[in-house]
């Protein structure tokens, strides 16, 4: 089934080059740990892919560990900080994170909190941007970790990660950056002068699902979550996902070459959507930053007052073949629909939260697709308002 896809923050389609790279490796089934020639080219593939990822992240290739994706990378980073402490030591330590982190940060931190860790969760401002001074004011002599995402998956708001990294210089506090919505789409730089970990995930930038990783600065000691055959210098055991890595390599090279053009295209598309919405006279409210400097250009978190987002998303899907998300796709796994923890933390009124859609797109999105989306939105919002008697 084909249709129009506006949920690029949940996952992206494979890029044509990524598909080709995977196809070319389909017959190379050898285990990269083998000592024979069949394995050698896979060994080289793994090494070269780390070089490409390092270029995207502005870090060093030797300090990249491949994982099964972003969730594992985030868990590995937190585990590396806390597993070095014994359970009774945990209660002597303190961590800080923002309230808008992804569940793969919030859930492990809450788990450590149950084991005794002191945890401070900082709300963002109404714009969805966390104030780095508020994070720093929460530091106590016991603070060992601050976790902040680089770009929020629901709103696309860019967080002050660079300013925070400079403020933490010399403090010996581990900074973990969940850069899963940023790497491959946004210019990144990983400084080496603080204890730093940064995560990425291939399926957010046109590589396959099931491959991602963790970058760590030279001041960090990684404690493995998975023990076994000693792959990834013993830091992440398990036979490498060579097909995923082949796809990741191609996607990373393309992202490196085209990053700025892609950003520019998304900026143009975002302006175009807003312009078309204005022309259509649909009533809407944009959630998040109004300063474009702090807003990822490929995301709109948008409320249509008086309309239930779930009903609107269903009608867009069933009647027009258009896929949009209600909020974070990752939280859609919960049995009962829950209000977005991100919009709640931003103190958005419930009427805005209940009518909010996340429209996310990419450099492959074209104006004609946006025209179809805006027309469908207009039609279905009118239908739903008529049903509601408004
Ligand atoms: N962190 C953020 C900000 C995300 O958006 C996601 C996925 O949506 C994840 C972590 C989890 O990544 P993965 O799907 O690769 O496990």
TrEMBL record:
GO terms for molecular function: cysteine desulfurase activity; iron-sulfur cluster binding; metal ion binding. Belongs to the class-V pyridoxal-phosphate-dependent aminotransferase family. NifS/IscS subfamily. It holds the Pfam family Aminotran_5. InterPro entries: Aminotrans_V_dom, Cysteine_dSase, PyrdxlP-dep_Trfase, PyrdxlP-dep_Trfase_major, PyrdxlP-dep_Trfase_small. Coiled coil: none annotated. Residues 5-373 form the Aminotransferase class V domain. This is NifS protein. Its cofactor is pyridoxal 5'-phosphate. It comes from Xenorhabdus stockiae. Keywords: Iron, Iron-sulfur, Metal-binding, Pyridoxal phosphate, Transferase. It catalyses: (sulfur carrier)-H + L-cysteine = (sulfur carrier)-SH + L-alanine. The lineage of its organism: Bacteria, Pseudomonadati, Pseudomonadota, Gammaproteobacteria, Enterobacterales.
């Amino acid at each position: 089934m084909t249709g129009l896809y506006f949920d690029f923050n949940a996952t992206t389609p494979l890029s044509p080059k990524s598909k080709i790279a995977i196809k070319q490796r389909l017959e190379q089934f050898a285990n990269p740990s083998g000592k024979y020639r069949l394995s050698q080219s896979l060994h080289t593939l793994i090494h070269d892919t780390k070089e490409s990822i390092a270029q995207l992240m502005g870090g060093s290739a030797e300090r990249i560990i491949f994982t099964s994706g972003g969730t594992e990378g985030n868990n590995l980073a937190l585990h590396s900080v806390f597993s070095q402490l014994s359970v009774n030591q945990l209660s002597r330590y303190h961590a800080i994170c923002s309230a808008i982190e992804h569940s793969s940060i919030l859930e492990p931190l809450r788990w450590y909190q149950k084991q005794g860790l002191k945890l401070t969760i900082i709300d963002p401002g109404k714009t969805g941007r966390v104030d780095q001074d508020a994070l720093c004011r929460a530091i106590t002599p016991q603070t060992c970790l601050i976790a902040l995402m680089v770009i929020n998956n629901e709103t696309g708001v860019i967080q002050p990660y660079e300013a925070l990294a400079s403020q933490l210089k010399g403090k010996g506090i581990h900074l973990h950056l969940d850069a899963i919505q940023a790497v491959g789409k946004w210019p990144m730089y990983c400084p080496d002068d603080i204890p730093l970990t940064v995560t990425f995930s291939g399926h957010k930038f046109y590589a396959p699902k099931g491959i991602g990783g963790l970058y760590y600065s030279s001041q960090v000691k990684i404690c493995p979550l998975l023990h076994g055959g000693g792959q990834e210098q013993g830091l992440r055991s398990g036979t490498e996902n060579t097909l995923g890595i082949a796809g990741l390599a191609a996607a990373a090279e393309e992202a490196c070459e085209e990053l700025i053009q892609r950003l520019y295209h998304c900026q143009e598309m975002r302006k175009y959507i807003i312009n078309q919405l204005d022309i259509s006279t649909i009533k809407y409210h944009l959630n998040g930053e109004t300063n474009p400097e702090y807003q990822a250009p490929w995301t709109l978190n948008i409320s249509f007052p008086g309309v239930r987002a779930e009903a609107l998303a269903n009608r867009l899907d069933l009647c027009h073949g258009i896929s949009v998300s209600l909020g974070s796709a990752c939280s859609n796994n919960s049995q009962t629909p829950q209000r977005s923890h991100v919009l709640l933390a931003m103190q958005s009124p419930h009427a805005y939260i209940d009518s909010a859609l996340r429209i996310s797109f990419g450099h492959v999105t074209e104006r004609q697709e946006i025209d179809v989306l805006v027309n469908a939105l207009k039609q279905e919002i009118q239908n739903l308002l008529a049903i509601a008697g408004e």
